[in-house]
Specification:
By secondary structure, the protein is an alpha+beta fold. The strands form 2 sheets. The protein has an 8-stranded antiparallel sheet with strand order 3-4-5-6-10-9-8-7, sandwiched between helices. Strands 1-2 form a two-stranded antiparallel sheet. 21% of the residues are buried.
Length: 204
């Protein structure tokens, strides 16, 4: 029995050394818990209105209407931060260039809406010119709440209040996919095509 206990302790130490980010979930040691359940439990524990933080990226915020987002992107385009606004494929997106405290990259952002309000923002860093953006998130948010490594990428999850931030780091590439989701909003599956509703089609 002692030998089995020792092996279990050894395995838990190895597990924690491989996954250098903390995994927190009720009854984790007693039951198999899926990634979805772990993250849902963390989102629930963080879901307090006083913890809400709606600020996301480049002046965009959760809850913005589509016209507000579109106008913000146009202002950024006039400041030459954004080089192109795209309303193709039923999405509002833009190409950007970021220079921030030694971190420089070019990429694309994609906006997703729920009940006419910005609920999710995705950032695809097509090229990291200098610095590793992942370091920026680690320095900002600290130890991640969930880490996973598979054949294609590594996943880093941070849940802070209503913000669920996920960074996908692809193997053999410096490209990152970054996702900001507002967990305080429930998704309306019957959402209509916002771009068509607002008459925004084509490219700008």
């Amino acid at each position: 029995m002692k030998k089995v206990f020792f092996i279990l302790i050894l395995l838990s130490v190895l597990f924690s050394s491989i996954y250098n980010c903390k995994i927190s979930c009720p009854d984790w040691e007693d039951n198999y818990v899926s990634k979805e359940e772990i993250l849902a439990a963390k989102e629930k524990s963080e879901s307090h209105p006083e913890n809400n933080n709606n600020s996301i990226f480049l002046g965009l915020s959760f809850g913005m209407s589509l016209p507000e987002t579109y106008n913000t992107l146009w202002q950024l385009k006039n400041q030459k931060i954004i080089t192109h606004i795209d309303t193709g494929y039923g999405l509002l997106g833009a190409s950007y260039t970021m220079n921030y405290r030694g971190y420089s990259n070019t990429g694309k952002i994609y906006c997703f809406y729920n009940q006419y309000r910005l609920r999710e923002l995705q950032i695809d860093t097509l090229q990291q010119i200098s610095g590793n953006l992942l370091e920026l998130f680690v320095n900002k948010y600290g130890e991640c709440d969930y880490f996973a490594d598979n054949e294609l990428n590594k996943e880093y999850h941070w849940i802070r209040g209503n913000q669920h931030v996920t960074v996908y780091s692809f193997h053999n590439s410096d490209r990152l996919l970054i996702q900001f989701v507002n967990t305080a909003e429930k998704i309306n599956n019957s959402e209509i095509n916002l771009l068509q509703d607002w008459g925004l089609t084509g490219k700008a």
